[in-house]
Amino acid sequence: MRSLPKNPSIRRSLAAGILVASGAAAQSPPADAHRGEFTAQFLLGGELVAEDAVPLVVPNANIWPVQVRWLAEDGAEVQAGDTLVEFDNSQLASQLEQLERAAVEAANQLASLEAETRSQVLEAAFELEQKEAALEKARLAAAVPAELLARKEYEKRQLDLERAALDEAAAREALDLRETSGNARVAKQEVELRKAEAAAQRARDGIAILTLTAPRAGILLVSENEDEGRTFQTGDNTWPGTTIARLPDLASMIVEAWLYDVDDGRITAGQRVTAVVDAFPSTALEGEVIDVDNIAKEITRASPRRAFRTRLRLAGLDVVRMRPGMSVKVMAETRIADALLLPRAALLWREGPGGHEAEARGADGEPRPVALGPCNALECIVLEGDAAGTGAAQ
């Protein structure tokens, strides 16, 4: 690691980057254009982020919206199992009380139905036993040969046998009916009990998941509440699926910066950079651009400005002192060989149809229009225009 220059004028030159040149004095003396290597620094703003982070997501407990009842402090060091977030569970707690009462009532009703069914079945079974005994008795009486009995007695015994058989069949049918109907009512009530118990268990599970604990040790980083323009805090309302905080792996920290669309192309993957964490301004870190997104996105809902997300990896990050969320300034250097260069002192500016237009005044004092590319603190690249009059070979 090395220190940045402390000279304020050098810092201002670095910060100028490759912004388009602003107006030079109209009375600047003539200066020759020349070919040479163009060097410029470009300043980019960003922050430290962790590529590997465990998200803490607002659970879906069938509550919309979900209110944050308690939230651990942003940046707090936590251990595995520590409580990090508690969401308001009063709605589920009230439901649980009602659901548990309903489950108890369903269980009591089931027990009552089972007892009633057993009693009715036992009664019907006893009735069947009596009818079976009567049938057997009638069968024995009817088995006496007719020649041993008076005709009237014999016929009476046959009728008694038929009547006893009908009574036994009716008793058997009554037993089957009581068993079938009783079992059906019990089965239906068992379903109702399972439903009531499941509903109560869902409420208990919902209450349980409304408390988020740390899955591992680390530093808690509270997420941005985009609706409020600040980090989440106690009392905020949010929605299931929202990432309310993260537990980052500090060893995976990189820089996430934003390259505004007007600066497209000025930063490329593999480019070497120098960065400074704002909290430690005296320490510069060397790094490299990992990649630049292909599509520019709006940075915030409140701003129409669009930018390309740019990821950079830095060497020598101090994970003891440096934390995700810390702001970072990134300095990238651009070099272009054999460019047609014109000192800023030779530039003139005038109002044109498209706004400010650049001209270069040659040795003869005549202004000539020029189109400029990137500029640094001292000179600009000439893209097109009559610069020959300034003395440079095209």
Explain this structure:
This protein is an alpha+beta fold and 394 residues long. Among the domains are: 53-88 and 210-248, OB fold (Dihydrolipoamide Acetyltransferase, E2P) (Beta Barrel); 90-208. It contains three helices and 22 strands. It has helices spanning 8-16, 90-142, 151-209, and strands at residues 34-50, 53-57, 66-71, 77-78, 83-87, 211-213, 218-219, 221-222, 224-225, 230-231, 237-238, 243-248, 253-260, 272-277, 285-292, 297-298, 306-314, 327-343, 347-352, 355-361, 367-375, 379-385. Strands 1-13-17-15-14-18 form a six-stranded antiparallel β-barrel. Helix 2 (90-142) packs antiparallel against helix 3 (151-209). The longest helix is centred in the middle third of the chain and has 59 residues, at 151-209. The chain is rod-shaped. Mean pLDDT is 84; it is low at 1-31 and 388-394.
Cα separation of the termini: 42 Å
**Would you list the SSEs in sequence order as H and E?**
HEEEEEHHEEEEEEEEEEEEEEEEE
Largest sheet: 6 strands, antiparallel, barrel
Average pLDDT for all residues: 84
Rg on CA atoms, Å: 45 Å
Low-confidence regions: 1-31, 388-394
How many β-strand runs? 22
How many helices in DSSP terms? Answer: 3
Helix content percent band: 25-40%
- SS content category: alpha+beta
What is the general shape? rod-shaped
Strand order of the largest sheet: 1-13-17-15-14-18
Beta-strand residue percentage: 25-35%
Q: Care to give the gist of this entry?
A:
The protein is α+β, with helices and mostly antiparallel strands. The protein has helices spanning 8-16, 90-142, 151-209; strands at residues 34-50, 53-57, 66-71, 77-78, 83-87, 211-213, 218-219, 221-222, 224-225, 230-231, 237-238, 243-248, 253-260, 272-277, 285-292, 297-298, 306-314, 327-343, 347-352, 355-361, 367-375, 379-385. It has three helices and 22 strands.
